[in-house]
Amino acid sequence: MTEPGLPEIRIRLPDWVASAVDWDRVYSVVADRMRLAIQLARANVEHATGGPFGAAVFELDTGRLVAVGVNLVTRDQNSTLHAEMVALMLAERRLGHYSLASPDGPAHELVTSCDPCAMCLGGALWSGVRRIVAGAGRVEARRVGFDEGPVFPESYQYLRDRGVESVRGVLGAEATAVLELYRERGGEIYNG
Ligand SMILES: [Zn+2]
């Protein structure tokens, strides 16, 4: 039983996500997976529910969609609710396990509309995904005012050495356009 008065955190995707995602669709090619992440990022800006970032977790081989995430930092006043973290947490909830790397189950990948920050790169490593696919680059994110924190080329090598591949710059122009849309709308910059 929950003790009354103890703090509790609830993470809930915005209502618009329900009609924005086709859960039955199979995303067989990487570009389609990225298009979903970018579409989520753009809708998050248009609905003013958070920062200009979207992410999704897929089964690596089949393209089955497992979970989606959008940035909820400003809405929930929570600096850890980056799109990648939300997608990873919801994927683990759906699988009922803290690791997406079950030896008996399919491998998973994280697809994100922008290069992950230090927290999300670490979060992706601990989640057990086998691949990270990113859209906009850190340079583009910084131009808008967002900082990735301590992410270095060695960070990606560290992940590679542990079996986590990275593919970056997928549909980078489309992903960057969402960052610029956020800036044009005067969206809040919450780190850096
Ligand atoms: Zn992040």
Short précis:
The chain has helices spanning 17-20, 30-46, 73-76, 83-95, 118-127, 138-144, 153-161, 172-184; strands at 54-59, 65-70, 108-114, 131-136, 165-167.
Which keywords apply here?
alpha/beta; 15% strand; globular; 40% helix; binds zinc ion; five-stranded mixed β-sheet; 192 residues; Cytidine Deaminase, domain 2
Overall geometry comes to: globular
Number of strands: 5
Question: Which value, in Å, is the CA radius of gyration?
Answer: 16 Å
Task: Specify the number of helices.
Answer: 8
CATH topology: Cytidine Deaminase, domain 2
> How would a crystallographer describe the biggest sheet?
5 strands, mixed
Q: Classify the helix fraction into a percent range.
A: 40-55%
Top CATH class: Alpha Beta
Give average pLDDT, whole number. 95
